[in-house]
């Protein structure tokens, strides 16, 4: 088993490195200038001389590591100098390139490779360096719009996405597996027909429609004002002396509608998947043997059929991990939940690319972790998978 896990981990390491490289390329080629955005927002409402602004730009380029070459090496013309990356003024850079083009002669047609070593932006972004610990230690740089460490912003927001993602998937499995089993055992019963119709209807409805419908019905003073329409706690905040239990009780009404919106689609899908998977197992020889031995239907389903039909359920379970970081953009926006989904929308609108790239990178890493966990569970449930590796 440990050999199997080690093989899977070794396969994921190069994948994560490729993901980190793609994330860095996107960040490096994002439109706009991060330094200009930071300096301009810092100087809003105050008069600064050109010299002061240039000093600030130089300071922030040093802080963000933008004064370093982009990668470990670069391929350029033989006529170009090794320090061309240090010129940040676009107009000046174009003039220098034009001058090189007219005076370089045959060297303009010969390539050369410049090796910068480990003193570059990508190495600093990945492993750390001046003023950075690197993304492998959780440092995703500085937010352009908020001028705070990206990891601090993510830590503050990820708790709610984590809470709703995990609780919704747990509720979905706890409720849907018994429903799926009952449908598979009594496919022609009234309960099965009504349940399958409702589940199919739920699964076909998009989350934004359900979210708005829930707000219109259960958070509308003109219909039923049962639950609060948005947020995760009272507007006036918690009582100053409130205990943890009291805070949870105060927040519970705010969580009901979002949790329904998070859960309904997974519940419908897992119920139908469970029913289909178990029904397929009923035609297997081992089920016929178990029936011939006189085992009860309940024991056959829960001890044998469910375990052997668990592979599709494990696949669905592994998909929960990326949503912990990405959150649900639509649901969090509708219910104003301060999670990663809403933060992603705000970061995109503000063109805060370090936050966007951090969310993409972490979501990719958690997707890989979900696949790894799924592979381990596959091998645990079905030894034939483990023995083939």
Structural features, described:
This protein is an all-alpha fold and 389 residues long. It has 2 domains: 36-137, no CATH class; 150-388, MetI-like (MetI-like fold), CATH 1.10.3720.10. 67% of the residues lie in helices and 3% in strands. It is built from 17 helices and 2 strands. The protein has helices at 2-28, 34-42, 50-64, 90-103, 121-127, 150-185, 190-204, 207-218, 244-281, 285-292, 297-308, 310-318, 320-326, 329-334, 340-349, 353-381, 383-388, and strands at 73-77, 111-115. Strands 1-2 form a two-stranded antiparallel ribbon. Helix 2 packs across helix 3 (50-64) and helix 6 packs antiparallel against helix 7. The longest helix is centred in the C-terminal third of the chain and has 38 residues, at 244-281. It is globular and about 90 Å long.
In short:
This protein folds into two domains: 36-137, no CATH class; 150-388, MetI-like (MetI-like fold). 67% of the residues lie in helices and 3% in strands. It has helices at residues 2-28, 34-42, 50-64, 90-103, 121-127, 150-185, 190-204, 207-218, 244-281, 285-292, 297-308, 310-318, 320-326, 329-334, 340-349, 353-381, 383-388, and strands at 73-77, 111-115.
SSE series? HHHEHEHHHHHHHHHHHHH
The helix count comes to 17
Total separate domains: 2
Radius of gyration: 28 Å
Major sheet summary line? 2 strands, antiparallel
CATH H-level homologous superfamily name of the largest domain: MetI-like
Strand arrangement in the largest pleated sheet: 1-2
Q: Classify the fold: give the CATH topology of the largest domain.
A: MetI-like fold
Indicate the low-confidence ranges by residue numbers. Answer: none
Mean pLDDT: 82
Overall structural class, as computed from helix and strand content, comes to mainly alpha
- CATH top level of the largest domain is Mainly Alpha
Q: What is the overall shape?
A: globular
Percent helix, as a range, is: 55-70%
Q: Into which percentage range does the β-strand content fall?
A: under 5%
Q: Give the N-terminus to C-terminus distance in angstroms.
A: 10 Å
How many strands? 2
**CATH architectural type of the largest domain:** Orthogonal Bundle
């Amino acid at each position: 088993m440990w050999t199997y896990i080690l093989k899977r981990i070794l396969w994921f390491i190069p994948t994560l490195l490729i993901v980190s490289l793609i994330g860095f390329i996107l960040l490096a080629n994002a439109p706009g200038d991060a330094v200009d955005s930071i300096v301009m927002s810092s100087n809003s409402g105050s008069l600064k001389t050109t010299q002061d602004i240039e000093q600030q730009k130089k300071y922030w380029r040093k802080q963000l590591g933008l004064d370093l070459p982009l990668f470990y090496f670069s391929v350029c013309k033989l006529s170009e100098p090794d320090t061309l990356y240090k010129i940040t003024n676009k107009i000046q850079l174009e003039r220098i390139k034009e001058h090189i083009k007219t005076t370089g002669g045959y060297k303009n047609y010969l390539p050369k490779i410049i090796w910068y070593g480990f003193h570059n932006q990508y190495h600093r972004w990945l492993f750390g360096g001046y003023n950075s610990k690197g993304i492998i230690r959780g440092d995703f740089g500085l937010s352009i719009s908020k001028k705070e460490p990206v990891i601090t912003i993510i830590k503050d927001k990820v708790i709610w996405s984590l809470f709703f993602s995990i609780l919704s998937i747990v509720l979905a499995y706890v409720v849907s597996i018994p429903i799926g089993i009952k449908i598979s055992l009594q496919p022609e019963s009234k309960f099965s027909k009504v349940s399958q119709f409702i589940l199919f209807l739920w699964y076909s409805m998009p989350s934004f429609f359900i979210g708005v419908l829930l707000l219109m019905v259960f958070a509308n003073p003109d219909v039923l004002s049962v639950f609060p329409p948005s947020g995760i706690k009272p507007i006036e905040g918690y009582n100053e002396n409130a205990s943890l239990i009291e805070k949870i009780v105060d927040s519970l009404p705010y969580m009901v509608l979002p949790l329904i919106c998070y859960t309904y689609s997974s519940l419908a899908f897992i119920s139908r998947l469970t029913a289909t998977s178990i029904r397929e197992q009923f035609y297997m020889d081992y089920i016929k043997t178990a029936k011939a031995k006189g085992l009860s239907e309940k024991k056959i389903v829960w001890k044998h059929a469910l375990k052997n039909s668990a592979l599709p359920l494990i696949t669905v379970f592994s998909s929960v991990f990326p949503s912990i970081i990405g959150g649900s953009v639509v649901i969090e926006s509708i219910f104003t939940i301060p999670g990663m989904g809403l933060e992603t929308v705000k970061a995109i609108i503000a063109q805060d690319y370090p936050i966007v790239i951090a969310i993409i990178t972490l979501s990719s890493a958690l997707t890989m972790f979900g696949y790894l966990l799924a592979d381990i569970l596959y091998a645990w449930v079905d030894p034939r998978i483990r023995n083939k590796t």
